Amino acid sequence: MEGFKIDYIEIIGIVAAILTTASFLPQVYKTWKTKDVSSLSLPMWLIFFVGILFWLVYGILEKSISMVLANSITIVSSFLMLYFKIKYGKRQ
Amino acid sequence: MEGFKIDYIEIIGIVAAILTTASFLPQVYKTWKTKDVSSLSLPMWLIFFVGILFWLVYGILEKSISMVLANSITIVSSFLMLYFKIKYGKRQ
């Protein structure tokens, strides 16, 4: 198991990844339920989605399972937020 | 310069960090101007803020300048969003 160690630094990284990945779920749920997107920024979700796409590619190239897992979930969350903003934004 | 190389994979990571860090700025600006926080999720910004705090500590312990830089900016953005949500949320 040389070179593969989960020390306390890696545990902090894993907690960080779980928190930032999970954080978008209540926003997706709230927007899906209320269909209210008035105070959401379209540029934010557009730039964020493209940024997460780059993080996902980076994680794949770096062969980091935790980065690929976290960013695979976040790319779905950010795509949904972008879709909601464009879809429901037209009505407001 | 052995062990310190910026290859194309690192460039993808740097682009990813710039995009996700920059993405929150239009949201902070929009919320600051409009004071409208109705469609923002409080749990999202609370969990996200704590998550970024963990990423910042992780970056410091890993001695990653790009992680420390990106997360120092994002912790300010997410703190402002949390502050706006709590402050302006009371009025609505």
From TrEMBL, chains A, B:
InterPro entries with a match to the protein in the record: PQ-loop_rpt, SemiSWEET
Any matching Pfam family: PQ-loop
Aminoacyl-tRNA synthetase among keywords: no
TM segment ranges: 6-25, 37-58, 64-84
Record keywords: Membrane, Transmembrane, Transmembrane helix
GO MF, one annotated term: sugar transmembrane transporter activity
Bilayer topology: Multi-pass membrane protein
Subcellular location: Membrane
Cellular-component GO terms for this entry: membrane
Gene3D superfamilies: 1.20.1280.290
Main location: membrane
NCBIfam families, per the entry: SemiSWEET_2
Name this protein carries in UniProt: SemiSWEET transporter
